[in-house]
Amino acid sequence: xxxxxxxxxxxxxxxxxxxxxxxxxxxxxxxxxxxxxxxxxxxxxxxxxxxxxxxxxxxxxxxxxxxxxxxxxxxxxxxxxxxxxxxxxxxxxxxxxxxxxxxxxxxxxxxxxxxxxxxxxxxxxxxxxxxxxxxxxxxxxxxxxxxxxxxxxxxxxxxxxxxxxxxxxxxxxxxxxxxxxxxxxxxxxxxxxxxxxxxxxxxxxxxxxxxxxxxxxxxxxxxxxxxxxxxxxxxxxxxxxxxxxxxxxxxxxxxxxxxxxxxxxxxxxxxxxxxxxxxxxxxxxxxxxxxxxxxxxxxxxxxxxxxxxxxxxxxxxxxxxxxxxxxxxxxxxxxxxxxxxxxxxxxxxxxxxxxxxxxxxxxxxxxxxxxxxxxxxxxxxxxxxxxxxxxxxxxxxxxxxxxxxxxxxxxxxxxxxxxxxxxxxxxxxx
Length: 430
Description:
By secondary structure, this protein is an alpha+beta fold. The protein folds into three domains: about 10-155, Beta Polymerase, domain 2; about 250-375; about 380-430, no CATH class. The protein contains 22 helices and eleven strands. A seven-stranded mixed beta sheet has the order 3-4-5-2-1-8-9. The chain has a two-stranded antiparallel sheet with strand order 6-7. A hairpin with an 8-residue loop joins strand 6 (about 105-110) and strand 7 (about 115-120). It is elongated, with a radius of gyration of 28 Å.
């Protein structure tokens, strides 16, 4: 059972890594020197209270957040990116440590779904009341004279104890409809439950298509990182139950077969050697759900405003699911048949073919990915010219015939590959 706390000094000592704790102490001393108030806020505080560890840190300054971030980044010899319109900055310490620094602020929305208009807040309490959920409306003082003092004015600790996700006010999902997705994310990731009134508000916002009020880019920025996580299949299933998938043109529920396929995606990507597979896992899972719901890739790409490479990866994955290469399950195929069937498939398409395929298809997919796809012919167009072949557009196909020989005939010499290419040219140039 979580003990209600007024000071998190002990939890910070136990729950933060040594570098993170040292950084916060240094930041608190700098804030004292600059005569501003500094707080650890939101998710990191929540995670300290429930015993979860994390590297990323979110800080709020009652004062000029970007100016504080710049001064601290200079001390750390770190890079900093500022967003003056939102009064925020991000400090990057290597690849694994991000520190977000924001001016404590109040927000207003000109209309439902609008980006917020922000103004500096006069206190940390004022900042906490504009946040999304009670479990994130938490702050810990970092200035040395108040180190560890916990600010919880919205009942966040009680909801953490009860395992509830609760919005701060009834218009929350309309102010920022991305909270519809984030609410499900917190519920599934933490093993919590939507508070009863919050769920009613969510369902009403879904029924009235609140997500349509924001851009596809904002929808994607929240959805993709979430469904790329380990909890992604659970998030998608819960979204189905709450009507969110239907809003996104992705059906209403997930079958047991589809759930198994979604669970397998990260394992397959790891086997394929994909590092930082979160985005690839998200696109693969989207493709599997879209195929199961008979949703056109173009519809989903447009709804999420996916940029070029991401949209192309999703479209390719949905296409191969709709029409898998027959060579993957044919009784007898050559290595070249497998190569040319999968040539050009990106990692997302390969992953969905694997998780949705029979065992023989999986074996052939791995054969292609681990060995065949790297194969190149030992001859070039220059070799064809040296052999007195007449130049023309057929050269590229002739080289593919050379590759076919190399793939199918173990130890095929460059001479044998050249002969195959020349025979092809002779057949088409007569």
